[in-house]
Design goal:
- The chain has about 160 residues and is α+β, with helices and mostly antiparallel strands.
- It has four helices and ten strands.
- The strands form four sheets. Strands 3-4-5 form a three-stranded antiparallel sheet.
- Strand 8 and strand 9 form a beta hairpin.
- The protein is elongated.
Length: about 160
């Protein structure tokens, strides 16, 4: 594992040793993303703005990631740009896998209904429509129903469920 300096932050980003000689040829910078919560790492290559994770994917496949796809971080750590932490995915899948802070049960698709009642509701959204899967005595039962339903509809992201 090697480290690349982000010049305007004076911080380092992890990259694979295999890609280090190619990545280290350029000066890398960071700028705040639109939502102001995290940084995007970029360099200018041949008068073109290039984002670090897309460049790493290009080094791997020798093709640029299509515009309709994104390169996302599996561990949600933007300072870890090793190939094992990157994947090409759709913007919808990125939104689906985002870490949500409002969910108090800690399980996707499960909420306590009503709050502090000890009864848990499982629900799922398919084609922008929310579908209620039932109410359960334990959050584990509700989560199991949610996972089963995700497998039934063959959703792309169900494989990321624990």
């Amino acid at each position: 594992m090697a480290y690349i300096l982000i010049n305007n932050l004076s911080k380092y980003v992890q990259v694979d040793d295999l890609f280090y000689p190619y990545i280290n040829q350029y000066r890398w910078f960071a700028r705040k993303d639109k939502d102001k919560n995290h940084y995007i790492f970029y360099a200018y290559m041949s008068a073109k703005f290039t984002i670090l994770p897309r460049y790493i994917m290009w080094l791997t496949t020798k093709r640029w990631t299509p515009k309709k796809l994104c390169v996302s971080y599996i561990s949600h750590d933007r300072y870890d740009n090793r190939l094992s932490n990157l994947r090409e995915t759709s913007p919808a899948n990125i939104i689906y896998n985002a870490i949500r802070t409002k969910n108090m049960t800690g399980l996707r698709g499960v909420c306590e209904d009503p709050p502090n009642s000890g009864i848990f509701k499982a629900s799922i959204s398919v084609d922008k429509k929310r579908r209620n899967l039932g109410r359960f005595k334990t959050k584990e039962d509700a989560y199991q129903k949610y996972k089963d339903e995700m497998k039934k509809i063959d959703y792309v992201a169900w494989c990321n469920l624990p």
